[in-house]
Amino acid sequence: MSYYSGTISVPWVPTRDELLEYIVRIARLKPSDVFYDLGCGDGRVVIRAVKEGIKKGVCVEINSSLIERAREAAEREGVLDRIVFMNEDFFRVPLSEATVVYMYLLTSVNRALRPKLETELRDGTRVITLDFEIPGWKPVQVVEIALPTRMAKLFLYIKGISDR
Ligand SMILES: C[S@@+](CC[C@H](N)C(=O)[O-])C[C@H]1O[C@@H](n2cnc3c(N)ncnc32)[C@H](O)[C@@H]1O
After folding, report:
1. Residues 108-138: tens digit of each pLDDT
2. Mutation test residue for ligand 1: of 1, 12, 17, 92, the one with most atoms within 8 Å of CB
3. Residues in contact with ligand 1 (CB, 6 Å cut-off)
4. What's the number of domains the chain is made of?
5. How far apart are the C-alpha atoms of 126 and 99, rounded to whole Å?
6. Facing residues of 101 across strands?
7. Residue 163 domain-assigned?
């Protein structure tokens, strides 16, 4: 099922498990981090981040059955109490608490989110996108990973550097 971000639909396509290790590495997670996944699907990325020992994960997902799945997965993995689940449109969620933001969306949605990221994120916040860039922002690192069927690309942006 697809959900509309403004006028743009983003289907649920989960981040492949092989990429989770690369994501936590590029994010350089530390214990004080608050990790947001905007459109968190079944929660796999946030769950993995929280298992690295960060302060908190925030799973924002518009699809109520997916957020329920994410909650169940977090319970199975023993990290339910360290993740906040928001069944909400990410355009309506305040982002100022985030120190790391993950987005596996579309270039057009990243473009639409950009003003919100620029207004609400604090300088130093790391923003990681999979496969789709944030138009107009300069990545500080790009990692290409060979998957069995395709090449995946992770982009690391830092608020205060990438958006200037
Ligand atoms: C490509 S999937 C990525 C899922 C997850 N982040 C991952 O990497 O496994 C995009 C997700 O964004 C969700 N989504 C789309 N528009 C949304 C919106 N406006 N607010 C919150 N979630 C949204 C979809 O339901 C879908 O689960």
Report:
1. 999 999 999 999 999 999 999 999 999 999 9
2. 12
3. 3, 5, 10, 12-15, 37, 39-41, 44-45, 60-63, 66, 89-91, 104-105
4. 1
5. 6
6. 36, 127
7. no
